[in-house]
Design goal:
single chain; mainly alpha; 2 helices; elongated; Arc Repressor Mutant, subunit A; 79 residues
């Protein structure tokens, strides 16, 4: 791996691309930034975060019918 120049924009882009791959539930596969240390790390961090988000969502119990949205508590009572 080489030391390459990188910018904040490229770092964010690498993270987002990795995040969406992880969020899609796909296996990690090859990193498109494998030749660029910092960007590869950002992509891998994004993949891990996206993958964790999927696992957390799947582990959460489904809302039962008639359950209240936590964000609506208090709104229904105001008037």
């Amino acid at each position: 791996m080489s030391q390459s120049k990188w910018s904040l924009e490229r770092l964010n882009e690498a993270y987002r691309k990795g995040y969406f791959v992880g969020l899609s539930g796909r296996q990690r596969g090859p990193c498109p930034y494998e030749d660029e240390d910092v960007l590869a790390s950002a992509w891998e961090a994004g993949w891990h975060d996206g993958n964790d988000a999927v696992r957390i969502h799947r582990a959460r119990p489904a809302a039962s019918p008639g359950s209240t949205d936590p964000g609506s508590i208090g709104r229904a009572q105001s008037g």
